[in-house]
Amino acid sequence: MSSWTRHAINEINADFQRSAETHLIRFRLADYPGIWFYLKDESTHPSGSLKHRLARSLFLHGLANGWIKENTPVIEASSGSTAVSEAYFAQLLGLPFIAVMPATTAKRKIEQIQFYGGQCHFVTDPCELYSASVQLARELNGHFMDQFTYAERATDWRGNNNIAESIFRQMAHEPFPVPHTLIMSAGTGGTSATLGRYIRYQGLETQLLVVDPENSVFFDYWHSRDATLRSPRGSMIEGIGRPRVEPSFMPDVIDEMMKVPDGATLAAMLKLAQIIGRKPGASTGTNFWGMMQVAKRMRARGEQGALVTLMCDSGERYPDSYYNENWVAQQVGDISCWQRELE
C-alpha cells in the first residue's frame, strides 16, 4: 500500500471520528394512540444527506481495492445527493471529481457539487448515466465509482456503525425498542439491503417495507424477479427509484413493497414539514407516506409499536421544484386529494 493510500484512508477515518451520530426524532400523532413515530435525520451529515455514509464506504472500498490512487479522477452516476457527498470526500483527498447527472437535477445540488470542487456532466436520458460514466472513466483513466453496483457490497451490513446498527442502538431505551416496521425508499438499494440483512442477522421481528416512486422498476421486480425490466422515464423523486434493476437491490431481504404516487409523496412531504417544523426532501415524503399506511393498518388491528424511517436530505435543496407550487402544478398536478387523505 502506498503512503498516499494510507494517508487517504486515515483522512476518511478521521472525518468519521469528527462526525456525531445523527438524531432520531420522535413524535406522536393524536389519531394514532400507542404508535410511536421516529425519523432518523440523515440530513445533518457534513455533506447533507444519507448518502454521506454511502460515499464514505465507497471511497474506502475503492481505496482498499486499489482502484483509487493518488490523482485518480473519480466519476459517479448520480441524481445529486450521492454526487454531493462523493464530491465532499474527493475534495478531502485532493482528487478530481465528475458527477454524471440528469439535466433536471436540482440547482442547489449542482451548486453544492461545484462548491466541493466537483464538475457536472449532464445527460438528457437517465438511462445514459451509466454509459456516459464508463466512457468518461475510460477517457480520463479514472475510476467509475458505480454506486448502483457497489452500494450493498461496500457497506458492512453486520455492524461497524452502519445505519441499521445505529437505529437499533438509539431505540434501545424507547417504549418499543424493537420497531414494528422500518420504512425505506430505494435508490441504489444499498440502504434497504443493509437494513434487511441486519434485521435477519440479529434475529429481529422487525418488518422492512420498501416504498417505490412512480417510473421505477423496483416494485415490479420485487414481484416478478424479471431483471430485464426497464422504465422509459426516470423517477421524478430525486435520489430514489430507478429505470432499470440495479445490482445493489436485494429483493429477498424485503418483507413488503409499496408503490407511492408522486402526488402522495409531495403531500406527505408537506405534512411532515408541518409536524416537525423543518422541510424534508421529497424522498422523505415517500418514506413518510409508507409510514402512515403502516400506521393505519396497525390502528385498524389495535396494534401498538414503533415505526422508523429516514429523513434522507433537507427540503432546502429543492426551493425551485418540490417546494414551488407552480412547479408542482405543472409537473405533478393537483395533490389536494392526497393531502385530504393525510388529514
Descriptive keywords:
single chain; 343 residues; alpha/beta; 6-stranded mixed sheet; 43% helix; globular
Describe the structure.
There is one protein chain. With 343 residues, the protein is of the alpha/beta class. Helix content is 43%, strand content 15%. The chain contains 13 helices and ten strands. Strands 1-2-10-7-8-9 form a six-stranded mixed sheet, sandwiched between helices. It has a four-stranded parallel sheet with strand order 5-4-3-6, with helices on both faces. Strand 3 (74-77), helix 3 and strand 4 (97-102) form a beta-alpha-beta unit. Helix 1 runs antiparallel to helix 2, helix 2 crosses helix 6 and helix 10 (262-276) packs across helix 13 (336-342). The longest helix is centred in the last third of the chain and has 20 residues, at 282-301. The protein is globular and about 60 Å long.
Describe the structure concisely.
With 343 residues, the chain is α/β, with parallel strands linked by helices.
Beta-strand portion reads 15-25%
Structural class: alpha/beta
Distance between the termini: 58 Å
Query: What gyration radius follows from the Cα positions, in whole Å?
Result: 19 Å
- Average pLDDT confidence is 94
The string of secondary-structure elements, in order, is HEEHEHEHEHEHHEHEHEHHEHH
Number of strands: 10
Describe the secondary structure blueprint for this structure:
Layout (H helix, E strand, L loop, with lengths): L2 H16 L5 E4 L7 E7 L9 H14 L9 E4 L3 H13 L3 E6 L4 H9 L3 E5 L5 H12 L2 E2 L2 H8 L8 H8 L10 E5 L4 H12 L5 E7 L4 H7 L31 E5 L1 H15 L5 H20 L3 E7 L13 H7 L4 H7 L1
Parallel strand pairs: 2-10, 3-4, 3-6, 4-5, 7-8, 7-10, 8-9
Antiparallel strand pairs: 1-2
Helix pairs in contact: 1-2, 2-3, 2-6, 3-4, 6-8, 10-11, 10-13
